[in-house]
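Hey, I'm writing a tutorial for new members on how sequence and structure tokens pair up, and I'd like a real worked example in the thread rather than a made-up one. If someone can provide the structure for the chain below, I'll link this post from the tutorial.
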Amino acid sequence: MAWNTERTRQALLDAAVEEFSTRGLAGARVDRIATTAGVNKERIYQYFGGKEALFDAALLAELDRLADAVSLDATEPEALADYTAEVFDYYLDRPHLARLLYWEGLERGDRAVPGEAERHRRYRDKVRAVSRALGRGGEGGPDDVADAAAHLLLTLIGLASSWHVLPQLNRMILDDVDPVARREAVVELVRSIVPGLSRG
């Protein structure tokens, strides 16, 4: 039945997210994923083709969830602080996505990744939104404006995600590992680096 197929596929994706976010691509085991999902490991090969393809499917599904949950359609600078806070909150609830992204970077380096064209398009849309929020248009324009918006977007994402993948630095630098305090600090940092952003 199609319903059972979809349920099994989703169970495998859920188990894969947990396994890959904890152990990375190299350290993950299809046996553990299948056991956690409660299915025969042959289903992994049947539905996804193998471990690496399952990693890709799990990561892309999680990125789709993030895109659906947190949008950036900014028209003013304050929206950038709000966006960063929302991304931080999303990762707080689903830290495995930040870990999956870091694992992807660690294990694949600067090589092209699955879904890259679509992911690139989404990020370019966000870069244009950052440009608009800064009052610089966003439908093209000088390269230095686009570059500044792109660098700012990458900085905002880094601020929102690093808390969730660097617990040892949080502990050693902050002593009191308080996500609420960190969120407030991140928002204030955004307000301090974004030109024209309102404070208070």
